[in-house]
Each structure stands twice: as structure tokens, then as C-alpha cells.
């Protein structure tokens, strides 16, 4: 019984990047501009401004908010911007778009903060499974940043990875 279990992955030069670790915690909220329009489709500036003024903005305290305007609703650009000015002081983050746009932006900002020099000429694997939603765009952005600098790039888990790139 002298056989010892050795974790070859932990002892290898393989660097694993788990995008799940970049997931920003917080309540995600989709706020439609139609909630502040007359009959949900007509923007009358005075009533729009009154609705914004009387709305309980504290309900979005520390939320991650996407301000959404459906394509079939035509409003001037200033209307969504005005909505953002009410949200910005109370939210953790706000943008104009949908929840997918919000998630993509949150991951993009986190990826922009990474110093990729540590992966220079390395063997890197982008971890495939996660318990939190990771947008496809974030995976693509990460692959695009790594490809010019790594020796090898793969995706998945150490036991079953898919090779993506090998430096010539």
C-alpha cells in the first residue's frame, strides 16, 4: 500500500483560468423605459419627468441595472440617459441594454483588469464548467487576449480538454 495518489494536473505547468471567479455578485435588474411612458409607448416629457421624480430609486440600492428600451418603442436618446442619471447614484452599476449586455460588460471590465503577462508562453486552459453564468462573449474575449501570448490554449477540464491553439 505504498502507492501514493499524485495529482499530475496540480504538479504540471498548466495554468487554469476560471472565468467564474470574475462573476460580479449582486442583484441583476432589468428596468424598462416603458414603465415610465404614457400607456407604455408614448413619451410626454412632463409626465415622464414626473414619473421619474416620484419613483422609488432606493429600491435599486446596490443593484446591477440594465435600462432597456424595446425596439418597437421609439423614444429620444435623452430619455434613457435621464433614467440612467436617476439610477447611477444608487446602483452598483448601470448601463443601457439588456441583461445579457449587462453581464457581458461586467465580465469585459473584469478581464480588462487582468495582467496577462503571467500567461506569456504558458500552457493555459480556460475552465469549461461553472456554476455561474459566463457569457460566450467573455470566453471569446479571453481567448483573443491569450492566443497571441500563450504556447498552448485549451478549453474544458484537465481530464477532457479541447485544444484551441498551439503556437507554431
Could you characterize the architecture of this molecule?
27% of the residues lie in helices and 21% in strands. With 168 residues, the chain is an alpha/beta fold. It folds into 2 domains: 14-24 and 107-166, no CATH class; 28-91, no CATH class. Strands 1-5-6-7 form a 4-stranded mixed beta sheet, with helices on one face. A 3-stranded parallel beta sheet has the order 2-3-4, sandwiched between helices. α3 (99-112) packs parallel to α4. The longest helix is centred in the middle third of the chain and has 14 residues, at 99-112. It is elongated.
Distance between the termini: 44 Å
Parts with pLDDT < 50 across at least 5 consecutive residues:
none
Number of helices: 4
* Sheet with most strands: 4 strands, mixed
Q: Per DSSP, what share of the residues sits in E-state strands of 2 or more residues?
A: 15-25%
Overall tally of structural domains = 2
Give the total of beta strands.
7
Average pLDDT: 92
The quaternary state of the protein chains shown equals single chain
Rg, Å, rounded: 22 Å
Q: What are the secondary-structure elements, in order, as H or E? A: EEHEHEHEHEE
Q: Provide the helix percentage.
A: 25-40%
What is the strand arrangement across the widest sheet? 1-5-6-7
Amino acid at each position: 500500500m505504498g502507492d501514493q495518489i499524485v495529482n499530475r494536473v496540480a504538479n504540471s505547468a498548466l495554468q487554469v483560468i476560471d472565468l467564474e471567479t470574475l462573476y460580479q455578485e449582486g442583484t441583476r435588474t432589468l428596468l424598462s423605459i416603458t414603465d415610465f411612458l404614457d400607456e407604455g409607448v408614448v413619451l410626454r416629457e412632463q409626465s415622464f419627468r414626473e414619473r421619474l421624480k416620484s419613483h422609488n430609486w432606493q429600491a435599486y440600492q446596490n443593484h446591477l441595472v440594465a435600462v432597456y428600451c424595446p425596439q418597437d418603442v421609439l423614444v429620444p436618446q435623452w430619455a434613457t440617459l435621464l433614467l440612467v442619471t436617476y439610477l447611477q447614484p444608487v446602483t452598483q452599476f448601470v448601463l443601457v441594454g439588456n441583461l445579457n449586455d449587462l453581464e457581458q460588460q461586467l465580465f469585459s471590465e473584469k478581464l480588462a483588469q487582468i495582467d496577462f503577462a503571467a500567461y506569456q508562453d504558458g500552457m493555459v486552459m480556460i475552465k469549461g464548467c461553472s456554476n455561474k453564468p459566463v457569457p460566450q462573449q467573455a470566453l471569446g474575449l479571453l481567448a483573443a487576449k491569450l492566443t497571441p501570448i500563450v504556447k498552448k490554449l485549451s478549453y474544458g477540464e484537465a481530464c477532457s480538454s479541447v485544444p484551441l491553439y498551439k503556437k507554431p
